[in-house]
Fold these 2 entries.
Entry 1:
Amino acid sequence: MTTDNSPPRTALVTGAASGIGQAITETLARAGYQVIVADIAEDRARAITHNLREQGQKAEAVLLDVTRMESVQEAVTTVTQRTGPIDILVNNAGIGMAGTVLTTTPTEWDRMLTTNVTGIYHVCRAIVPSMIERQTGVIVNMSSIAAMVGLRERAAYSASKGAVLALTRALQADLLPYHIRVNAVLPGTIASPWIDRITADMPDPEKTREQMAARQPIGRMGSPEEIAAVVAFLVSDAASFVWGAQWTADGGLTAF
Ligand SMILES: NC(=O)c1ccc[n+]([C@@H]2O[C@H](COP(=O)([O-])OP(=O)(O)OC[C@H]3O[C@@H](n4cnc5c(N)ncnc54)[C@H](O)[C@@H]3O)[C@@H](O)[C@H]2O)c1
């Protein structure tokens, strides 16, 4: 990851206290990055940070609510006093919700868009100025295959993840002159705590999981680590020619 004498690079991951974000944080920490575990769930963020430090890795936890600009700004200001500037930003925090346009309430709709889309706007506003100043940086935004295919009962979620893709390209257009790379990752169904929560509400959770797995052309869900591996590539210098791209990692779901 780093050349011999260069200091470790610093990566802030939002929604890092669970599932895909946790796997990204752990993968980047193992690769030698200093990681910032940023999440609204402060206790879990601290526990993950503690474990990483026990393994000799560099990690900091910070309480950050992507829906609130003041929270984001305060978190970034506080944590960068300890870590130095942020080189890599992974906008991973997100929420999911089932519903059609008719069954999604206005409050639920706003909450979805505020978390999944406006959240990225807030975090970028807090971190991008320092990347521009230093003329370097990498951003990865977590979209979803819901941005590519029509899924039933996912109206607000799909709208939010489509917006993440469009925002990724707009960000890339604006930030390219400053040598900042911006890419999006589009996971298929990933066996994270999120999926556990969705299936727990079903009459037969195990059967629902099996149906979700069967929907994937390769017959299984992805793991958070498989998404983390894509992100680790995208933030590395190995991806130096990858700009404004959308990377699906979905077991073939959108290929057919
Ligand atoms: N699991 C999947 O199948 C799947 C598929 C495609 C895309 N994704 C995307 O991947 C990302 C992570 O999903 P996951 O499956 O790991 O979910 P998860 O629920 O396991 O983790 C999400 C994390 O985001 C945090 N978070 C929620 N709201 C926040 C806020 N306002 N501020 C800061 N942190 C907040 C939560 O506390 C949690 O730690 C999401 O953006 C999701 O849309 C997931």
Note: Confidence is low (pLDDT under 50) at residues 1-5.
Entry 2:
Amino acid sequence: MVVAKKAVVIGSGFAGLSAAAFLAKSGWDVDVVEKHDQPGGRARHFHEHGFTFDMGPSWYWMPDVFERYFNCFNARVSDFYELIRLDPSYRIYWDNDQMDVPADYAAMKELFEHTERGASAKLDAFMEEAAYKYRVGINKLVFKPGQSLLEFLDKELIAGLFKLDVFNDIKSHIGKYFKHPKLRQMMEFPVLFLGALPENTPALYSLMNYADVKLGTWFPKGGMYKIVEAMHRVAVDQGVKFHFNEDVTSINIQNGVAKSISTKNGNQFNADVVVGAADYHFIETTLLEEKYRSYSESYWNKREMAPGCLIYYVGVNTKIPSLLHHSLFFDVSFQHHADEIYVDKAWPKEPLFYLSATSVTDESQAPHGSENLFFLIPIAAGLDGDTEEVRDHYFNVLSDRLMQKTGVDIRNHIVFKKSYSYSNFIEDYNAFKGNAYGLANTLMQTAILKPSCVSKKVNNLYYTGQLTVPGPGVPPSLISGEVVAGLIHKKYG
Ligand SMILES: Cc1cc2nc3c(=O)[nH]c(=O)nc-3n(C[C@H](O)[C@H](O)[C@H](O)COP(=O)(O)OP(=O)(O)OC[C@H]3O[C@@H](n4cnc5c(N)ncnc54)[C@H](O)[C@@H]3O)c2cc1C
């Protein structure tokens, strides 16, 4: 009888779930060890007073990536959850008016033309280019483990190097097509997911505009946690064993080889291979002795982090008239807030913010006549002063702004309210500098320039998740797990 090799995966976020399922599929005996009582990591959820709250991701973009994932296990997305396409995709509140971004492309072109003469034809040209980047990016770039430049020696990649716009920035790229400030901001918005200023983000990422405008914004009925449940189901069906409420305290190494991991409960899990799917910096600096770390503390301190965030989960006993599922409050200066995040690294004076209310689309998410509100303010990574007073201050700021736009003062309707920020990210996820979305996707932190998914010091230790290739976001995290499982399988069979 052939004995399956044993892999231990630390953490059950999207990347850990994905790595575990792919390893099990290729014959490994897999244990996933997770400190929380449920899988999902930053995408956990909770129920309170009849409200359901997804704790992290709320934008379901790139449905093709999810479909492909489940197809790899002979399943389909529709086996697990129903996807609803949102229309309008989202609303942007400006200072003096608002813009609903339609799902339908013809309606989107009309909106562009109405806002700026000639912009509809420009949108076609922009999207044609973005479609190319999306196709090449998804098929040829993101599935690379980033171990060597040789991985990118591909005819289409070399021929398309300039068309892929890796060396131009997306701010000027968008500026070449559109002049109206509102169109520019709308097109720059998806880049905010990538964690750097548009002027520091390669124009390659106009592929995100393609994802937004052409592929659409979707919602899994029942909430984003449906994705986690589905991935967990797939992993269990592949034979993966999950161990929840197990906080890993060390990776035990003998002669440069990881032999096992230990947990706070005094348990030990033996391994032929260990996959670190918790925050990379934490694994390196806390679970490993110094001599086994691939990167120094000064390396980490020089990384440019994506913004952190201040979040509020609020259940209110009223409906908010005309509210959409996703709303972006761009009613104050984009530039000032961006400078406070990336340049001054200060608490914002007048923050932009994002509001999601899944109860608008799905009645199961809140009691009848109520809304479940998720507010998110992006803030500079690693800020000091995450106090209750600061959190109260910003809650009043966004309540006032929501009242201005909708006429409803939610402070009079609160049934449940919870805030979540840096200190929670550190406590719950051991997040470096309390990061929410990992590293910024700048050119200097792309592909082979990201923290490596293979340990440089420990023979059989691998990393996956948003701090390594290909980067932050739900689709990249599940790709990350697949890439690492592929590397392990290639080496060990
Ligand atoms: C507020 C927020 C909003 C977001 N919005 C979106 C969005 O709309 N769309 C999108 O695509 N992406 C979004 N993202 C990004 C996306 O959620 C993340 O990139 C992705 O979930 C990261 O997955 P991961 O597996 O790398 O890490 P994680 O989800 O952090 O998983 C790591 C796991 O390791 C566990 N762990 C940590 N330490 C230990 C230990 N010592 N022992 C055992 N287990 C441990 C953690 O509990 C966790 O379960 C958002 C993120 C946040 C925080």
Note: The chain has three domains: 6-51+58-81+224-302+438-492, 105-215, 307-429.
